[in-house]
């Protein structure tokens, strides 16, 4: 992705900004709905603040939109967010990356699942890449290339940090740039502290800005230190180009035995992390043993 020399280069937005985490001691909040709050200091917006700070440490110019698009009405949140994305891109044409940061939901009314990288205290992260199955989205493979590069760098830094990439039939407002992704940081079984730790992902993956002698000309490139080959042939039914990746590991595979997340998707969890203690009337929280689904 080429990053412009002027104005914001990255937009962080939260289509579902009220999404919140397990209210651990010291992280309690007033819920607007189960696992949701309008308090930005306790919701996924706080995770966006942390991610923004890490990216800015690398000299990147980040615009963080902290608007609640899902409150007071959840319905229409993607349409409202889309209008803002269009407006931002019109005002700031140098924006190359649009990162929609969410908190995932896995489980049901009685049980929720947390996903943690082993021994790290970090929530796992999942990248969601929309496709053109339902609506026109001709450049979705460009977004997938970015997701694969990010995934490879993160897996290289910590093989337990990332859940497999999810290819979604929806486009999730990712049709506006070739650097648009959803980033699901943890689940409603994770604590805010675990999610904030995961927001250190760019630092852990040794983000390489690769700003070279062309800086004065605005030829900024955002890359990852992990070597990843080209993905030009990632077409449906076409053999992938050489990538330093195992797509069977990186990409989401459905299984009838998998737990389901909030959108009804089959979930692949790694057998990492410890079950959180039950807190008051909240559902019990556990880590699923689904390691066999990765074979």
What is the structure about, briefly put?
With 295 residues, the protein is of the alpha/beta class. The chain has helices at 44-57, 77-91, 140-157, 192-198, 201-204, 247-250, and strands at residues 2-3, 10-13, 62-64, 97-104, 111-113, 116-117, 122-123, 125-130, 166-168, 180-187, 207-208, 220-221, 223-224, 284-286. It is globular.
Molecular structure report:
The protein is α/β, with parallel strands linked by helices. Helices cover 21% and strands 17% of the residues. It has helices at 44-57, 77-91, 140-157, 192-198, 201-204, 247-250; strands at 2-3, 10-13, 62-64, 97-104, 111-113, 116-117, 122-123, 125-130, 166-168, 180-187, 207-208, 220-221, 223-224, 284-286. A 6-stranded mixed beta sheet has the order 3-2-4-10-8-9, sandwiched between helices. The longest helix is centred in the middle third of the chain and has 18 residues, at 140-157. It is globular, with a radius of gyration of 18 Å. The protein starts with a strand and ends in a 9-residue tail after the last strand. The model is unreliable at 208-283 and 288-295 (pLDDT under 50).
Number of helices: 6
- Tell me the radius of gyration: 18 Å
Average predicted local confidence, pLDDT: 75
Low-pLDDT windows of residues = 208-283, 288-295
> What is the molecular shape?
globular
- Helix vs. strand class: alpha/beta
Query: What fraction, in percent, of the residue positions are helical?
Result: 10-25%
Order of helices and strands: EEHEHEEEEEHEEHHEEEHE
For the secondary structure, the number of strands is 14
Which strand order do you get reading across the main beta sheet? 3-2-4-10-8-9
> Strand content of the residues, in percent?
15-25%
Terminal-residue CA separation:
33 Å
For the sheet with most strands, the description reads:
6 strands, mixed
């Amino acid at each position: 992705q080429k990053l412009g020399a002027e104005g914001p280069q990255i937009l962080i937005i939260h289509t579902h900004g009220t999404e919140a985490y397990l209210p651990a001691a010291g992280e309690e909040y007033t819920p607007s709905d189960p696992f949701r709050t309008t308090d930005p200091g306790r919701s996924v917006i706080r995770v966006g603040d942390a991610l923004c700070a890490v990216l800015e440490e690398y000299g990147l110019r980040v615009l963080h939109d902290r608007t609640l698009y899902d409150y007071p009405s959840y319905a229409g949140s993607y349409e409202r967010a889309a209008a803002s994305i269009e407006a931002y891109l019109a005002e700031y044409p140098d924006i190359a990356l649009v990162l929609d940061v969410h908190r995932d939901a896995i489980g049901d009314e009685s049980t929720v699942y947390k996903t943690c990288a082993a021994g790290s205290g970090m929530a796992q992260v999942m990248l969601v890449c929309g496709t053109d199955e339902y609506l026109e989205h001709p450049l979705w493979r460009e977004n997938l290339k970015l997701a694969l590069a990010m995934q490879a760098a993160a897996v290289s830094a910590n093989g337990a940090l990332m859940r497999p990439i999810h290819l979604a039939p929806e486009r999730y407002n990712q049709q506006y740039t070739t650097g648009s992704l959803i980033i699901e940081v943890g689940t409603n079984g994770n604590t805010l502290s675990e999610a904030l730790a995961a927001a250190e992902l760019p630092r852990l993956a040794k983000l390489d800005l690769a700003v070279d002698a062309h800086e004065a000309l605005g030829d900024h490139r955002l890359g990852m230190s992990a070597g990843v080959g080209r993905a030009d042939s990632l077409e449906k039914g076409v053999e992938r180009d050489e990538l330093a990746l195992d797509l069977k590991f990186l990409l989401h595979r459905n299984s009838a035995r998998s737990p389901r997340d909030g959108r009804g998707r089959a979930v692949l969890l790694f057998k990492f992390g410890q079950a959180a203690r039950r807190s008051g009337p909240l559902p019990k929280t556990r880590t699923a043993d689904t390691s066999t689904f990765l074979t």
